[in-house]
Amino acid sequence: MELNHIVFIVMDSCRYDSFVAARTPHIDRLGVAEKRYAYASWTAPSHHAFVMGLMPHSSPKDVFASEVYKDEYVQWKLRTGCDSIEFKAFLPDLSLPKVLRNLGYRTVAKVSMPVLNKNTLISRDFDDYKLMKSHNDFAGMIDEMEFPDEPHYYFLNLGETHYPYMLDGSKLPRISGVHGALKAMDDAEVATSASQGFDAEQMAMLRQQQIKCVEYVDGQIGRLMEMTPPNTHFIVTADHGELFGEEGYFGHGPIMHEKCFEVPFVEGRVGGRR
Prior knowledge:
alpha/beta
């Protein structure tokens, strides 16, 4: 039995309509992206769902949640190419990397967000787990990837689509996540430096910049596709969306708004094969 390589790409903070507005000829080779919904509104809890093997959901009506979970886990037979996966193997750990390791995969994670650093529980069952030195180094991740005969599972968290969207952060308000906020709490000047906001023109500029970042990521995915064997299954999605001024919100996290949960989702092999 030949197992598929799996490349799971998470564009951090990429909202669905930003993805749709971007030109993505390489990602389009996998199929048409769906609008789905993240299980959480910020990075860490959403990635815990990914590590459990759960993708963003489609919010189906008139169905029990348990049936949605069953349908989702069955997809791992197609993704891996292994019909003999025993779903009880996910228990009690609920760890996709552990299940894949037991199938013979080498499990590798490369992440951009400090809140996903190696000391977190998310890293637990990966053979190799790395927090990249740069927030925007998808290109560097690709340079470190290889596809030998041994099946590989690559989990990639990309910072390019996250604020400040590859812009010069020194010219923008300092907006930290949980990790950065905790580091800054003992420094009153830094801790309060995000009090300035954005006007409508700046919000529009930031959204357009996120769209440009999606297009940059697509170009890098095209380069990655040239490296991968035919039996490589790609998953491209986001962990949550982003607000650009809608109803007075910016960013993500402690926000209950549909744009904070709407994400793109597409998967398949290059050429449309599943």
